[in-house]
Specification:
The structure is a homodimer.
Chain A lengths: L3 H17 L5 H7 L6 H14 L2 E2 L8 E2 L1 H11 L7 H12 L4 H16 L2 E5 L8 E10 L2 E8 L4 E7 L6 H15 L7 H5 L8 H20 L5 E4 L12 H12 L1 H9 L6 E5 L11 E8 L7 E8 L4 H21 L1
The first copy, chain A, binds a DNA duplex through helix 2 and helix 3.
GO molecular function, one term (chains A, B): DNA binding
Keywords (chains A, B): Repressor, Stress response, Transcription, Transcription regulation
Pfam family, one (chains A, B): HrcA
Chain lengths: 338, 338
DNA sequence: TCTGGCACTCGGCCCGGGTGAGTGCCAGGA
DNA sequence: TCCTGGCACTCACCCGGGCCGAGTGCCAGA
C-alpha cells in the first residue's frame, strides 16, 4: 500500500495540475505545499506513483500529470465534496424560484449548472416510467379526432393526436375519461398498462374499437416517451480547455448531440448518491478524455431523473460534485412544490 | 460599374475559396475556369475588385479572399438557389414523416438541417402570436387548483398551474371551459385578449374572482410564451472550420447559447422569402465572422416561425439556401397535415 | 530513509536561409 | 483601348541547428 505521504503527493499533484493545467514537477510541489521533505524525496515518491500507474509523464523531462487511475483514487479516497457557500446557495434558490413550467425549470437548471461548474451541463427531464399520473385528458377536436393529454406529477405534459375510425360521442368520451382517470390517477406510469387492460370490455360493443384505439395510443406514448428527453447547456465552456483541444472538442460535441448516448451515460449512474466516471471509464469513445459527474434528483426520496456535468478529466472534482449535489437538491424541492 | 468579366472573376474567387478554404491566386483561377484571358489580365481585374472592396489579401504575396461585401454581391447577383436532388428531397420527406409530436417535428428538422448543410441548424417553434387556438382545456386537479392547457393549430401545447383563492365547482369550470372555447377556438392568439375581456361579467358574483384569475393566467401565458423557444443542432459542425478557428468558435458557441440573441436574429429575417445576413451584417459581435441563412415556414401561406443555419461566411450559399428552403417547405407540409 | 549533487534528456524557442506562390508594373502587340 | 508576357519583388512557410532550462534518475553520504 502507498504510504500516507505518497497519497499526499498525489493529492498535491492533482490539485496543482487542475489549477495550472501544466505538468507539475517535484520542485514546484515542495514550494507550493508543506510536505516537509526535499524535492529529491518527492521524486522517489513520484517514481513509485508512476510505477503504480497513478501518474504519468507526457514526455521525459516534463513534470507528471495524473492518470485516470490517479483521479479515481483522488476522488475515492483523497477528496471530499466541497459544500457551496451560502451566497451560492441563495443564488441557486433565487434563480430556480422564478420558473413557470417544467421546461422552464429544466432550462434554468441547465444554465445554472453550467454557470456554477463552468462546464457542460446535462439535465434529464423527469422520467415517465418513474412518475405518477396526475391526470389524463381526452379532447374531442373533431367528430373522429381525439387529443390525448397526459400530465405527470412532475409537471411533464405529453400529447398525442388520435384518429378514430368511427365517431365517438361526447358522452362516451366523458365516460372513458372518467373511468380512465379513476383507475390511473396517482399510479405509476409503469403500472398503467395492466390497470387499463380490461377497460374496453366494460364498454358497449360500438365503442370498444375506439376505446381500444385510444388505449393503444396511450400505451404507445408511454413506451415512446420512455426514450427520455434532456437538455444541454454550457457547451461554450468546452473552449476553455487546452490549445490542443480542437482535436478533442469535436468528438465531445458530437457525443453531446447524440442524446441517446448521454441518456445511456446518465442511465448508468447510480440511482442514489453521486456517480463519477473518469476518462476511459466512459464507454463512449468520444468521451474518453472527459469525466462525467451525475446524480439523481426527484421531488421525493426517489430519483425521477438525473442531472450532471461533462468536463475534462482535469476538473475540480470536489467543487463540481458540490455544485451538482446542491443543484439536484434544490431542483427536487422545486418539483415537490409544484 | 464592374464589367461582366470582373463579376465572373468574383464568382470564380468565391467558388474556389469556398471549396479550398485557401486564398486564390490569378494563375489558379485561369486554370480552373474558362475565363478566356491570361493571369495578368485577371490580376488587373482583381486589383479593381480589391479597390472596390469586394476582395482582400490576407497578406502581400498571397491570393485573394472575398470580403463580406464580396459575398453580398455574390449572393445578390451572381448566385442562384441550388435546388436539391430528388433523392435528397425524398430523404427529407421520409425523415420528417415519422414525427409523433411537435417536439419531435422540431427535433427532426434541426437534425436534418444540420446534416444537409453540415452547419449549425436553428429552428424556432411555431410562434404563439401567429397561431390560432385549437382548444383550451381546464382541469380541476384539486378543489382550488386548476390546470390550464392551451393547444395551437400547429400542435404546440402550453400548460400552467393556477391556484384559485376559492374553490370552483366542476359545473362552473365546465361552463367556463365551454364559453371560453366557443369564443376563442379558431381565432388567432393575438386576438384572444379582447375576445375574453367581458367574460367575467357573464358569471355569477361568486365565481367572477376565480374566472378573472384564470383569464389573467391565460393572458399571461400568451405574453410569456411570446418569448419564443427554439432548438439548435449540429454544433459539432463548427469544428470543421479553420485550424485558427478555436478563437472564433468560442464566441459563436456563446452566442448560440443565448437563445434571446438567436431569436432576435431570426426575428430580423424577412417574413417571406429568404434572408441572408453576412458577417458584419449581424449585429451580435460573436457572429461577425458567420453568416445566417433564415426563412419563414408555416402550415399555410403565412409564416408561423422561422428556421435557418449559422455557418462561416465562407459557406456554399446556393447549396445552403436550397437546403434551407426545401426543409422549410416540407416542415410546413407536415404541420399542415397534423 | 532522507538529502544534496550531478549528469542527462528532450521539448520549446529563436535564428537564418531557401523556396515558391503570388503580386504589381511595364512595355509591346492586337 | 485592352490584353499579354516578362520580370523583379515580397513574404509566408518550411526546415535544420543550436541554445536553454525544467525536470528527471541515480548515487553516495548523512
Amino acid at each position: 500500500m502507498l504510504s500516507e505521504r505518497r497519497l499526499e503527493v498525489l493529492r498535491a499533484i492533482v490539485q496543482d495540475y487542475v489549477g495550472t493545467e501544466e505538468p507539475v514537477g517535484s520542485k514546484a510541489l515542495t514550494e507550493r505545499h508543506q510536505l516537509g521533505v526535499s524535492p529529491a524525496t518527492i521524486r522517489n515518491d513520484m517514481a513509485a506513483l508512476e510505477d503504480e500507474g497513478f501518474i504519468a509523464q507526457p514526455h521525459t523531462s516534463a513534470g507528471r500529470i495524473p492518470t485516470d487511475k490517479g483521479y479515481r483514487l483522488f476522488v475515492d479516497k483523497l477528496a471530499g465534496v466541497k459544500p457551496l457557500s451560502s451566497p451560492e446557495r441563495r443564488a441557486i434558490q433565487n434563480f430556480l424560484d422564478g420558473a413557470v413550467d417544467l421546461d422552464d425549470v429544466v432550462g434554468r437548471t441547465v444554465r445554472l449548472l453550467a454557470q456554477l461548474t463552468r462546464q457542460v451541463a446535462v439535465v434529464q427531464y423527469p422520467s415517465l416510467t418513474r412518475s405518477t399520473v396526475r391526470h389524463v385528458e381526452l379532447l374531442a377536436l373533431a367528430p373522429a379526432r381525439v387529443m390525448l393529454v397526459l400530465i405527470t406529477d412532475t409537471g411533464r405534459v405529453e400529447q398525442r393526436l388520435i384518429d378514430c375510425q368511427t365517431p365517438f360521442g361526447e358522452t362516451s368520451l366523458a365516460d372513458l375519461r372518467a373511468r380512465l382517470n379513476s383507475r390511473v390517477v396517482g399510479r405509476r406510469f409503469a403500472d398503467v398498462p395492466q390497470l387499463v387492460q380490461d377497460l374496453p370490455e366494460s364498454f358497449e360493443q360500438d365503442d370498444r374499437g375506439t376505446v381500444s384505439t385510444v388505449l393503444s395510443v396511450l400505451l404507445e406514448t408511454l413506451v415512446e416517451e420512455t426514450e427520455e428527453r434532456l437538455m444541454i447547456g454550457g457547451t461554450a465552456n468546452l473552449t476553455r480547455f487546452g490549445h490542443d483541444f480542437p482535436l478533442t472538442i469535436r468528438p465531445v460535441l458530437e457525443a453531446l448531440e447524440e442524446h441517446v448516448v448521454l441518456l445511456k451515460l446518465l442511465g448508468e449512474a447510480k440511482d442514489s448518491g453521486m456517480t463519477v466516471r473518469i476518462g476511459h471509464e466512459n464507454a463512449h469513445e468520444g468521451l474518453t478524455s472527459t469525466s462525467v459527474v451525475a446524480v439523481g434528483y426527484g421531488s421525493g426520496d426517489e430519483a425521477v431523473a438525473k442531472l450532471g456535468v461533462v468536463g475534462p478529466t482535469r476538473m475540480d472534482y470536489p467543487g463540481t460534485m458540490g455544485a451538482v449535489r446542491a443543484v439536484a437538491r434544490y431542483v427536487g424541492q422545486i418539483l415537490a412544490e409544484s
